[in-house]
């Protein structure tokens, strides 16, 4: 009898040990682990400890840029969200939201750009010129230590490895303040350039500077029109010019010339004309302005490039 009672006690203990397990509490533990941000590739990665559904990730940056995307999964069960258009150098909050066993879990990661404030590069800009060259330039930040040295990295797509600048342009003190690219490759209308400027100093870490993608077609600077000729056919002065060679095919309506006709008797008059040759009756203009009719007056041409890349 005692033995039977003992066995009963044993069973009861076993049973309560089994069912006193804090199962619901276990479920409240987030299934998201190993959340990591690659600030260069702008990818957030993580893995799960349990099966989930309804996943999304969100990035918030101080420039009020907020984006929510769905993740992709790699072969080794790593989940990836990519934010190619986000700028991370002012810091970012990243959040992964998932549903797991009916509960919603939010896991956040706060990213801060390391280094002394104001020591990173500032005033970064790039331009493409002479069809196949590109120059980028920047200035040392106002709080940059004297020994700061900057490095520029560029890549053309998310899948491409970054390459460091080959021809740096140096400022008067030997600090790198620009980069000359002499091998831009075959142009595509859709070309984008991605840049990162970081730096080193013995005194402090230097924050990096990153950007939204630069659209190559918007940073091309055109040469002046070529082969300008002015002819006079006894009633009209005819000014003709040829388009400069340009890297990207633009439909002609995107390119405007501005003609600044300066007559001796008046302030400059400006005409905005569309592309191709432009007929200009200089004699009439000169007369209207009170000048001597029929005299050839000098013409100068300036060119407008449409859409320049805004500063970051
Ligand atoms: C997750 O789901 C898959 C298929 O739906 C299943 O084979 C696997 O056992 C589940 N894993 C966990 C940890 O529940
Ligand atoms: C991240 O979130 C914290 C807390 O909500 C907030 O104080 C901070 O400004 C946020 N940072 C960014 C970069 O949005
Ligand atoms: C950066 O550009 C701004 C605006 O053009 C200018 O005021 C500032 O002096 C520049 N900073 C440096 C370090 O060149
Ligand atoms: C680009 O940089 C090179 C190398 O410093 C320089 O010779 C050239 O004048 C620059 N061109 C433009 C358009 O800024
Ligand atoms: C600068 O960026 C490059 C490219 O991502 C990286 O390899 C290098 O370690 C960075 N340097 C510093 C000092 O962070
Ligand atoms: C300039 O235009 C004239 C007249 O159309 C032409 O004969 C000449 O070949 C052109 N020169 C160049 C360098 O294109
Ligand atoms: C001069 O050229 C203009 C434009 O082609 C034409 O309208 C005009 O009749 C020409 N004048 C003479 C005298 O040929």
From TrEMBL:
PROSITE patterns: HEMATOPO_REC_S_F2. SUPFAM superfamilies: Fibronectin type III (SSF49265). Keywords: Glycoprotein, Membrane, Receptor, Signal, Transmembrane, Transmembrane helix. One of its GO terms (cellular component) is external side of plasma membrane. Residues 123-211 form the Type I cytokine receptor cytokine-binding domain. InterPro entries: FN3_sf (IPR036116), Ig-like_fold (IPR013783), IL3Ra_N (IPR040907), Short_hematopoietin_rcpt_2_CS (IPR003532), TypeI_recpt_CBD (IPR015321). Residues 32-111 form the IL-3 receptor alpha chain N-terminal domain. It is found in: Membrane. Residues 1-19 form the signal peptide. It is a single-pass type I membrane protein. GO terms for molecular function: cytokine receptor activity. This is Granulocyte-macrophage colony-stimulating factor receptor subunit alpha-like. It comes from Panthera leo (Lion).
């Amino acid at each position: 009898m005692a033995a039977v009672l003992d066995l009963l006690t044993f069973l009861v203990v076993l049973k309560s040990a089994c069912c006193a397990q804090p199962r619901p509490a276990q479920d409240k533990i987030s299934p998201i682990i190993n959340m990591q941000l690659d600030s260069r590739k702008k990818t957030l990665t993580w893995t799960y400890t349990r099966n989930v559904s309804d996943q999304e990730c969100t990035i918030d940056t101080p420039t009020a840029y907020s984006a929510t995307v769905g993740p992709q999964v790699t072969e080794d069960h790593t989940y990836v969200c990519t934010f190619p258009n986000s700028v991370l150098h002012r810091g970012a909050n990243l959040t992964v939201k998932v549903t797991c066993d009916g509960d919603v879990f939010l896991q956040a990661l706060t990213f801060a750009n390391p280094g002394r404030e104001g020591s990173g590069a500032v005033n970064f800009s790039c331009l493409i010129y002479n069809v196949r060259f590109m120059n980028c330039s920047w200035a040392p930040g106002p709080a940059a230590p004297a020994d700061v040295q900057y490095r520029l990295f560029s890549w053309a797509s998310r899948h491409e490895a970054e390459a460091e600048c080959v021809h740096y342009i140096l400022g008067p003190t030997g600090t790198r303040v620009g980069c000359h690219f002499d091998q831009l490759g075959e142009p595509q209308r859709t070309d984008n350039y991605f840049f990162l400027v970081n730096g080193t100093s013995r005194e402090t870490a230097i924050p990096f500077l990153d950007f939204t993608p630069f659209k190559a077609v918007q940073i091309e600077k055109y040469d002046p029109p070529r082969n300008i000729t002015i002819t006079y056919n006894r009633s009209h002065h005819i000014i003709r010019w040829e388009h400069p060679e340009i890297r990207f095919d633009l439909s002609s309506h995107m390119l405007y010339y501005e003609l600044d006709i300066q007559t001796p008797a008046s302030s400059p008059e400006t005409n905005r004309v569309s592309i191709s040759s432009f007929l200009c009756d200089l004699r009439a203009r000169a007369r209207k302005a009170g000048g001597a009719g029929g005299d050839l007056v000098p013409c100068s041409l300036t060119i407008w490039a449409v859409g320049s890349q805004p500063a970051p």
